[in-house]
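Subject: sequence -> C-alpha cells, single chain

Hey, anyone have a minute? Need the predicted structure for the following. Not urgent.
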Amino acid sequence: MTIEAIVARYGLAALFLGAGLEGETVVVAGGLLAHRGLFPLAGAMAAAALGSFAADQLWFFVGRRFHDHRIVRRAREKPAFEKAIGFFERHPVGFIFTFRFIYGFRTVSPIAIGTTNIAARLFVAVNLVSAILWGIVFSSLGYLFGRGVERFMGRLRPDTHTLLAILAGVIVATGLFFGVRYWRKA
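Reply:
Had a minute. Here:
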C-alpha cells in the first residue's frame, strides 16, 4: 500500500484526532494535504469540526460530572480558568461560540463551562455551530496556504513523502512541547 493510499484511508481519522488533541496546527496541515489532493477539502473540514466538537464535549462533561477530580482541580488552578468563567458569566453564548478561537482558552474553557449551571443542550448546540465554523476557517487557511506555497515554489513542490515527514515532525514537535510543559507543571 502506498503512502497516498494510507493517508487517503486514515488521513481523515488522524485529522479528527489531531483536531481534538492539538488543534489549529493539525487542521491547517489537513487543509494543506487536501490541497495536495490526498483527501477532499470538505472531508478535512468535517473531520476537523467533528474532532474539535467531540473533544470539547468530552471536556465539558468532565467538568460537569467530575467537579472534584484532579483534572478539574488542576484546570481550576490555571489563570485562564478564572478568566474563562468571567467571560462566560458576562456573555455565556458568545463565549461558548468564541473560546476555541481565543489563544490560551481552547482547552480550559470547556471544563470551566462544564462546572457552571448552563444547560448541556445549549452548550451542545452552540459548540457544534462554533466547531463547524472553526473547522471550515482553519482547513480553508491550510488549503489557501497550500495554493500560495505552490505559487511561490512553482514547480519545486515537495513530494508526498517529504510533506508527510514535515507534518509528522510538526505533530511530534507539538506533542513534545506540550508533553514537556505538562510534565514540568506536574
